[in-house]
Amino acid sequence: MNTRKNQRTYAALLNKTSEPTDKSSILFWILSGIALIFLLWAPFQRGLFNGNNFDFERPIYSSFIWASVVLILLSIYLYFHWRLKEKSDLAIILAWLLPVTYFISTFVAASTNYAANSVYIQIIYVAFFSLAYYLTKQDLGLSILKYGFISTSYFIVIFGMMNWLGNKEAAFALVKWFAANMEPNTSYLYAVMSDSNGPRLTSVFQYANSYAAFLIAILLVAIFLVITSSKWYSIGIHAFMVVPIIISFFVTLSRGALVILPIVLLLVLPFLKPRKQVTYLIHFVLSFGLSVVILNKLTTIGVTLFHEYKSDLSLSGWTNLLVISLIYAVLAVLIQKFASPWIEKLTTRFEEKRFSFLAIPVLAVVIGGIGATLLLTDSGVTKLLPENIRTRIENINLQQHSVLERGTFYKDAMKLFEDYPVFGAGGGAWPALYEKYQNNPYISRQAHNFFLQYLTDVGIVGFAAFLIFLIFIYYIYIRNFIKQDEHTRNKRFIFFIVSISILVHSSLDFDLSYVYLGILLFLSFGIMISNDTMTLSNQWKEVLNTRKWAYPSVMLLLSLFLFFTSVRLLSADGQFNQSRATAASGNNNLNDILAPLDNALSQHPNHPDYTLQKASILFQVYNQTKDDKYYTEATALLDQALQKEPHNYQLVERKIFSLIQKNQTAEALRFANEKLNSFPWKVFLYEVLISLNTDMGHATRESNNVQERDKYWNQALEIYDRFETRKKELALLPKEQGQGQDFSETGKMGLALGQIQFIRGKYDAAEAMFRIGIGGPLEDQATKQNIRWYLASLQKQGKTDQALFDKLVAQDPNERQEIESLVNGKF
């Protein structure tokens, strides 16, 4: 009945004008259709993860096309409906500050490509924020987005459980026709992933922690819908999904989410009346209690099925899950139909007290604190949980690896911010620059904190714009919430839950690097304020509405430009993938490989991955033909890309190799030395600098230039001292925190430094250096060289390693003479 009434109301509004209204009606349904299709499509593109890599770009560029189309249609809609009447209307304009500040930061960006992609993503957010705002001004639009979001979210949960319970091929078959390309696999890759903690459910996100953040939002939304639905079947449907959500939440093994869940719950409860708070907590506790009954069994089944599919185990898992879900659904209906009215009567007087809405949350904090103490101490309560979950919970403390590592990320992010405080270092500042500022050689292209990462992207100016936008949204929502009746509040409250869940958890992780979650956040923002009743003053309205065509016109022109830009980007990505596929197929026709690659670079110049692909091909052709034109073209490409991407390590490494390839030792030395400041934990750079300085020293020694020889060799030793200083810093890390990548001396470093010491007559120091590289296979020439010099340095000291000597000579009898030549040589 409500839906029919809403439809009649919307139709009546549209019939107030003739032709423009008919167009608006068509636009309404087109935009609604786009929103629904996108909500189903987007999560199965690996959550639209912005991984700052070509592997993740195509779905984002596709989303950019969707967003451009949305903006075009909205601009047409606004030609007939644009007006600034309520305060919330200002948010549509204010939202554009977000991509504008990202665009400004591109002028000082550490990575042009990352920064440009970040601008596109912000525009996507504005597009869906605007779409949600205008669509949900009518109840029909609100219902479409609300139930579209809920149904697609429940489908994601079911999809995850199918993967956990061994039905990964069947799950993928449901979505294969529109999901991200996973060929040649027959399942959605990494929907369940294994790490040191065992298998973890990740569903569409391929990352357990962000899936857990999503589940927090869906869980709290589902329980809210249980306590506010009036129809028994609606209560039953939402309640039926609660247990699968909780099971999924547990098997993500996300410790951060376990900590965040009660915090989000406490932020949600004060917005409910005490009677609803009591009912909400009853459902929360009951559903968790019932879930724990089968948690151990479903965890064990999921872990077993991850390694080997067994149909009987899968069937057993589904049976247990469906039975407990059905039991809770029945109990939920009974609670809402019989217990809820009784609770309402009991709390009627209590609700009249001034701060009654805070009493139950405070009590929940106390009870929750007791529960947390029981869980985190040796009370035996955790023995009720599966071993892998119990281990994760018992390891929650401030000295665990993930906490210490995140602390390091946050400190390093602040170091980055201090160098780019005003406008930041552009979108993608962290993945572009973190290796320059990192305290130790960890690998993390995400800072694991959305707010800090945002700060490094756009600096104080951009971050202030985002905070103003955020505060404005919640100010409008809360002011309206206070004035509204309970029925009106309930219509949009689930989107408040979604926004709070995502924002709070993203303070501990990189959830908003998933563009899908970012879109959910901005959709929620738009819906939260779309029924604003706070009108602007007449003075403001007169000023802002004098040029009613201005905003739609600018928006239309901009959206058309963005559409053609997005099509060009997607086309470039397609051409690049075509080139890669041709090369992988074994087709040796150079033109067939380079033609689409050239098209990609013409449409998306200086893209680091496209550039690297072409440069690698050209260098291969040069090695085969020795035709300098290929080498010249490859190096020109690298130099051009490095101007836009100076912190891209792959480009840097390729450039060094190209210089060494042409024996441009001095230039390679200069370039590598310059880049060491940007990559202070890259062992390769230390190795190259030491080897090149040693080689330059050898060259000047042969020309009897002792002064130059000593200069280069001293530089090699200084580089090694810097390396050793860095290595000592790693020893100061807490024992619970891993150092990250290996940071130790290499055989090449030992060989170069050992030769310097040997020639200088410091045979004990030479021995120590050569010892670094003597443990490899004798077939390796670098290992053989180290052993040869090592044995010579021993003989110079009157020592020997007979076993190693015999082994070397047995492999190659000529080595005896080689060693003697070194021992008797005059340098």
Could you characterize what this model shows?
The protein is an all-alpha fold. The protein has helices spanning 2-14, 19-41, 54-81, 89-95, 97-105, 112-135, 139-164, 168-175, 208-228, 232-251, 255-268, 274-307, 311-346, 348-351, 356-376, 387-394, 401-419, 429-437, 450-483, 486-505, 515-528, 538-544, 550-584, 590-603, 608-625, 628-644, 649-661, 665-676, 683-702, 706-730, 747-759, 763-771, 781-796, 802-811, 815-824; strands at 192-195, 198-201. The protein has a two-stranded antiparallel ribbon with strand order 1-2. The longest helix is centred in the middle third of the chain and has 36 residues, at 311-346.
Mean pLDDT, nearest integer?
Answer: 89
Radius of gyration (Å):
32 Å
The count of DSSP E runs of length 2 or more, i.e. the number of strands, is: 2
Low-confidence stretches: 1-23
Largest β-sheet summary: 2 strands, antiparallel
The 3D shape can be described as globular
Order of strands across the biggest sheet?
1-2
Helix and strand content put the structural class at mainly alpha
Number of DSSP helices? 35
Helix content: over 70%
Distance between the termini: 98 Å
Strand content: under 5%
